[in-house]
C-alpha cells in the first residue's frame, strides 16, 4: 500500500535547465534593451510583464512546481492570490486619497 503523500518523482534533464537559463538571460537582456526605448507610461508595464514571465519560469521549473502535486500548485496559487489582493487594496487606498487637499 502506497503512502498518500508519495508521488512519482520527475527528473528534469540538464537540457531543460539550460534552455530555461538561456531564456532568462534573453529576457534580462530584453528588459535592459526596453529600458532604453521611450514608451511613455508603458515602460513600467512592459518591464513588469517581462519580470512576471521570468518569475513564472523560475517558479515552474527551478522550484519544480510544474511537476509537483495539485496541493503544491494550489498553495502557490493561493499565495499569488493573496499577493494580488494585498496589492489591490494598497492601490485602492493610494488612488482614493485626495492629494494636496488637506
Structural overview:
By secondary structure, the chain is an all-alpha fold. The protein folds into 2 domains: 7-68; 69-102. Helix content is 69%, strand content 0%. It has helices spanning 14-35, 42-62, 70-96. It is flat, with a radius of gyration of 19 Å.
Short structural description:
The chain crosses the membrane at residues 16-36, 42-62, 74-95. The chain is an all-alpha fold and 102 residues long.
Topology of this structure?
Blueprint: H1 14-35, H2 42-62, H3 70-96
Helix pairs in contact: 1-2
Organism: Paracidobacterium acidisoli
GO cellular component, one term: plasma membrane
Protein name: Oxidase
Order of helices and strands: HHH
Return residue spans where pLDDT drops below 50 for at least 5 consecutive residues.
none
**How many β-strands, per DSSP?**
0
The geometry reads as flat
Helix content: 55-70%
How many strands, what sense, and barrel or not for the largest sheet? none
Structural key phrases:
about 100 residues; 2 domains; mainly alpha; single chain; 3 helices
Amino acid at each position: 500500500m502506497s503512502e498518500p503523500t508519495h508521488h512519482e518523482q520527475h527528473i528534469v534533464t540538464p537540457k531543460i535547465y539550460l534552455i530555461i537559463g538561456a531564456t532568462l538571460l534573453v529576457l534580462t537582456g530584453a528588459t535592459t534593451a526596453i529600458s532604453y526605448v521611450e514608451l511613455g507610461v508603458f515602460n513600467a508595464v512592459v518591464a513588469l510583464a517581462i519580470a512576471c514571465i521570468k518569475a513564472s519560469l523560475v517558479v515552474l521549473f527551478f522550484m519544480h512546481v510544474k511537476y509537483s502535486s495539485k496541493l503544491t500548485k494550489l498553495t502557490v496559487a493561493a499565495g499569488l492570490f493573496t499577493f494580488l489582493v494585498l496589492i489591490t487594496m494598497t492601490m485602492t487606498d493610494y488612488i482614493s486619497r485626495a492629494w494636496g487637499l488637506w
